[in-house]
Amino acid sequence: MYNFREKANFLWSIADLLRGHYKQADYGKVILPFTVLRRLDSILEPTKKKVLEAYTQHKAKKPEILEPILNNIAKAKFHNRSKFNFTELANDPNGIAANLKNYIKGYSIGAQEIIEYFSFEDQIRKLEEYDLLYMVIKKFAEAGEIFKEVSSLEMGYIFEELIRKFAELSNETAGEHFTPREVIRLMVNLLFVNDKDILTKKGIVRTLYDPACGTGGMLSVAEEFLRELNPDAKLEVFGQEMNPESFAICKSDMLIKGQNPSNIKFGNSFTQDGLAEEKFDYMLSNPPFGVDWKKSEKIIKDEKEKRGWDGRFGAGLPAISDGSFLFLQHMISKMKRKEEGTRLGIVFNGSPLFSGSAGSGPSDIRKWIIENDMLEAIIALPDQLFYNTGISTYIWIVTDHKPKARKGKVQLINATGGDLEDKENPFYSKMLRSLGNKRKEIHESAIERITKLYGNFQENEYSKIFDNEDFGYSRITVERPKLDENGKPVLDKKGNIQADSDLRDFENIPLKENIQEYFQREVLPHVPDAWIDSEKTKIGYEINFTKYFYKYKPLRSLEEIRRDILALEEETQGMIGEVIES
Q: Taking the CB of residue 91, how many other CB atoms lie within 10 A of it?
């Protein structure tokens, strides 16, 4: 077997044993925990014999003394002191259920806690009832080669490929669980490119957090990047995940890599912030696109109302149908706000760029981020990059510590490649075989090109730099008089002219424009009796990405179109000509 997809396919094929007994949507409840167990088993195999010998010698000791001794011998942050491993389990079909439970109980406490998140006891009972337990274990025992010398990064690919396949079978949204690795690599490059001088210092320690960490893909890629950049650097990674299976996979990966598994918290980041007091140097996330926050509505609104700016959501609340901005505000609340500051990268769909008018929650959140000079750059990515959706996506880079040259500025990068042919496109490659909705991938040279566009901070065809104010506008309310039957203005009790609500209109005026001059130039020539109700003026912010990179394409002439149609007619042997000439 040569690549992660082949390995994932083999493990996925084991699910064939479940047909007729399990719903397809439930295959993952069996295959994923067994994959985790088999991987742990493979890692412990070289030291298993010595661990058992040490256990016999020290088993009378208290757990807090015994566990470190056995972990040390296992050369890991976990061990298994059961006499069984997968090979031994497969050698005894008669006592398979009892032996498997004995094997699971043999794991150290931390590893057992991870397994519990799979609700594995229920699956063991079902598999035994259907007389499938031994066959599944035997298959996993035979799959030992898959787990030999597999890196955490490759194992992450395997888990995510399995999750994608199971999600496809059950028509679920696999994209909620993971992000294509090349997108993560691009995000990590963008996050670290301006800090390489700091990150290459000997013994440097930095922290990174993902509030929707899934199986830990972003954490793994960031770790790998920093290790390649500086083997003496240490990246402590933190995360939170509400899907129990993804959480367990992420935590087991932390255990295997020697990271602190307790840095990964279970639950909803909005309602059960497991790292409430922590601040981080870097943050990365790809929260689910356009997912509502109805289930968390009460707690989030209570926090905003009671804690205001002391809480996470002081700037405003997004529409209930899309919680994207909640993730960004949650992450901003974990910025260090001093020293070298914090930089974060987050993937959004197009909605957070422009949704909501002036005075609405989304607009106020954009206003807060931009007016506080936190938005550093937005990179538009090629479409069809994600497994569950082909929509356009954007990476937002947000920081509380902009370099001097970037202060008061926002950089927009158009890396969609949309105006160029697919062949030799500088920003993506077409995949030979699509995976769900994913038909494009960002190749290595494209990652390098986009990172340079960002790092160089210069204007060109694909990179544009704006003042913060360029995205702001004043939304003015234009009133006109209410007239009586004689055509005269109606006055209120104070003698003021009453406005006619039926004639009320609105204008969005760029912040850099003088409102009165605009009004004189654009409004009064058409409605001379109009006036501005200044008390109703609101400030809004939106980022019209398409407008800034719009390229005019001349329409084809009628003669060209006619020529093409007639050429097509020749090919279709006169069938079209009968329609056009008639």
A: 11
